[in-house]
Amino acid sequence: MDDGATNDVTGSREVIVGLAPRDGSRAAISWAAEEARLRGLPLRIVVAVPWLGDTQHVDAEPRRMSLRAQAGQVLEAAAAWAEDTYALPELIMELYDGSAVAALTSGSVHAQSVVVGSRDLNRLQEVLSAGSVVMPLAARAHCPVVVVREPRTAPARQPRLVVGVDADSPSAAALAFAFGEAAVRGVALGAVSVGGPPVLPFAHRARARERQRGLLARTVADWSRRHPDVAVAEEVVSGDPVEELVKASTTALAVVVGRSRRRARTGLRLGRVVRGLLHRAGCPVIVVPPR
Length: 291
What we know:
alpha/beta, 11-stranded mixed beta sheet
């Protein structure tokens, strides 16, 4: 473990899991450790200790030292559990002085994925609060970000991943990650394309649905040729994309979605669908940045 002040989370092709200094998410560690094991990559466990806002207060330094000691305990416990539970190629522990978002965004430059946990994604204040890591990390990371909810119960999961596909403008990065992840995990992939609600006349509606099916089929066929061992089910549905992907999330291992390049240019970074899934999904959400 780097027990000095470290401010450079780097590595060549590794899986990173970020933990809060007072709370190590077992669900996030589990996903990250399994990912590292399956891909034969190092697992880096990072616990960031933020600087306290009121540095002029008389007890600021003792409070920070106490928080740092707690962070070290969380780090040691998480590493011990991961080593005991998974056959990992390599395990790296890092105590980072500073912002968790800065630490994990920096690490994402070289990472295969960055994993973070959430106690309850149904609590909007957790995802959108000023101290949240989820939204800013998902918006800025250079690699896929996996947001894993700490489950209250373990719902039945189908052995499949789901990828949301915009048939008119599919995310190549999201599809590449989804097919690769399905291949590594040996599971099926559901490609879900959501069209608008049925407001057109029936004949026009049917033509629009057939066009959407054709676009999805051509998009999926290209990736299926690259991953012939991945079983793919194509699904075209009408309705609100957030609602339909939330439904799909209730039994999936994870839902993969792409981060919009257009929104990244305007500074908004995350669109309504990504935000809605991070708020409401019933399984891990994987946000993939554009290439």
